[in-house]
Write a structure and sequence with these properties.
single chain, mainly alpha, five-stranded parallel sheet, 23 helices, 49% helix, disordered N terminus, binds adenosine-3'-5'-diphosphate
């Protein structure tokens, strides 16, 4: 893909060409009708968010919004919108204004910015004095627009659960002003944050490994790709998905559940029903449209066991081996333990990354807001997550035959992908295929849960292995983390 001159104004032709290339890759269909709605072409909200993200990377001055992409939801209409916008908008650098302002002024800037974004999302003017914005404030498009605006204008990921806590713009502005001030060092975090840091970081769970006999036939040919968050698992998944004998879909998250009903219920809690995410996953499982509707209407009535769901996914994929990349499995040892009773001698790929790099990335993405306790120190949460998840994965490695466990370092993967993938193919018992080294050529299986930034890269980028060193944290790591990092061969 041509990523040249990202800051240059675009032409109508260039906009059309880029939308076609990016959306074509995201949909896995290079040719599509320019006048057909993105939704009818099969795009869901995640795909549209990734399209927006990529177009913003290519044309930051166009300042596209979430509403734009929903209101101009064909290739032709969006290219037209971008052309109009490019001529009229002088991008006001809101981040610089915010950083340069006095503390009281920062809140005002944030309030105005939020009012503009919410008014834009709702297509009706809201003001600060609207004390309680009622259901409009919690409208799905408001969440999506704000998520996008913070990413575009402040390079700061925010999450729906954060927005949900507040009932009016004023409270929201105070909260996010505070968050951004801490992020950019304009304010110190509360002292309590680091107080709990040293002493003890929780140990991974102690669990009995006497497995109960499985209730049904164990599922064959399953590989779990496990890691702590921000270890490069999406990249490795894309690489593996290019192999002709492997099926490596977006995060399945199935192993947490016993039955399909509970999995669907969980999905519906996290994503709106009409966002297409569930339908996409149902597509993987092999249900037809009418069946999907039925399952979505009455999830509780679908008692198909997760073991059967896995069997259907494998049968539907037509590939010999399923690689299930779901990092959250490593959160609990009993989830990993279920793998041993559900699957016939499953194999484990353990992707590791330097703790400082994984922690830096975790904090930059504010993952503590997603998986931490309220008010938890982001660094503590990141370190604990790295430590416990890697300990849990090692724990399972210690209980299975050596030939079922394969460890890969992210740093080696990006700096020496050929060698790493060759040895991974040997472990998986498949021939090495050159395609795995080109994850972004005709990528498939890009949709589905996972990193919003998946499409910000066009190739394997070896320099990202050491990037974290530029922002090296001063915080010291606890003894257990240091010990595990040493065991993995990392220098701190
Ligand atoms: P950074 O946030 O440090 O950049 P995961 O997919 O497990 O969440 O991991 C995300 C990390 O993988 C990110 O780390 C990201 O840069 C890295 N990554 C994703 N695509 C990559 C690519 N094409 N080349 C190198 N690293 C990549």
């Amino acid at each position: 893909m041509d990523n040249s001159n990202p800051n240059m104004p675009g032409t109508h032709q260039a906009f059309k060409a880029h939308i076609t290339t990016v959306l074509g890759a995201l949909l896995g269909a290079p040719h599509f009708d320019p006048h057909t709605s993105f939704f009818l072409l099969g795009a869901d909200e995640l795909i549209l968010f990734r399209l927006l993200n990529k177009l913003n990377q290519l044309y930051p001055n166009v300042q596209l919004s979430w509403r734009d992409i929903n209101e101009h939801s064909t290739m032709a209409a969006l290219a037209h919108c971008m052309t109009q916008r490019d001529k009229t908008i002088q991008a006001a650098n809101i981040k610089e204004q915010f950083l340069g302002a006095q503390p009281a002024e920062r809140i005002r800037i944030m309030e105005n910015h939020l009012c503009d974004a919410i008014s834009h999302a709702l297509n009706s003017s809201v003001t600060l004095t609207s004390d309680r914005l009622g259901s409009g404030f919690h409208h799905h498009h408001v969440y999506m627009e704000l998520t996008w605006v913070f990413k575009r204008d402040f390079q700061c990921p925010i999450y729906k659960t954060e927005i949900e806590q507040f009932e009016n713009i004023s409270q929201l502005a105070t909260y996010f002003t505070n968050e951004l001030e801490i992020r950019w060092g304009l304010r110190s975090p509360e002292a309590k944050w680091r107080a709990a840091m040293h002493g003890s970081l929780a140990k991974s769970e102690e669990v009995s490994w006497d497995l109960e006999p499985p209730s049904s036939k164990r599922v064959q040919n399953v590989v779990l790709l496990l890691s702590a968050p921000r270890s490069g698992s999406t990249l490795l998944r894309l690489m593996l998905s290019r192999h002709s004998q492997l099926f490596c879909p977006p995060e399945l998250n199935l192993l947490h559940h016993k039955e399909l009903s509970s999995w669907v219920g969980n999905r519906l809690n996290r994503f709106p029903r009409d966002s297409g995410v569930i339908q996409n996953l149902m597509g993987l499982i092999g249900f037809r449209a009418a069946e999907c509707e039925e399952i979505l209407d009455a999830p509780a009535s679908h008692t198909m066991s997760i073991s059967k769901v896995y069997q259907r996914i494998i049968a539907e994929s037509g590939q010999a081996t399923l690689v299930d990349k779901t990092p959250s499995y490593a959160k609990r040892i009993d989830t990993l333990r279920r793998a041993e009773s559900l699957f016939e001698k499953p194999r484990y790929i353990h992707l590791i990354r330097h703790p400082c790099a994984a922690i830096e990335s975790f904090v930059r993405h504010r993952f503590e807001k997603l998986i931490g306790k309220p008010g938890e120190d982001p660094f503590l949460c990141a370190e604990k997550t790295w430590l416990i998840r890697n300990q849990n994965i090692l724990n399972i490695a210690n209980h299975v035959e050596q030939n079922r466990y394969h460890q890969i370092r992210y740093e080696d993967l990006v700096q020496n992908p050929h060698q790493v993938m060759e040895s991974l193919c040997v472990f998986l018992g498949v021939p090495f295929e050159e395609a795995v080294l080109h994850p972004y050529d005709r990528p498939n299986l890009i949709g589905g849960p996972g990193d919003y930034d998946i499409f910000q890269h066009d190739k394997i980028e070896p320099q990202l292995a050491d990037n974290w060193q530029q922002s090296r944290q001063t915080a010291t790591l606890c003894a257990e983390t240091l010990e595990l990092a040493k065991l993995f061969g990392y220098c701190i």
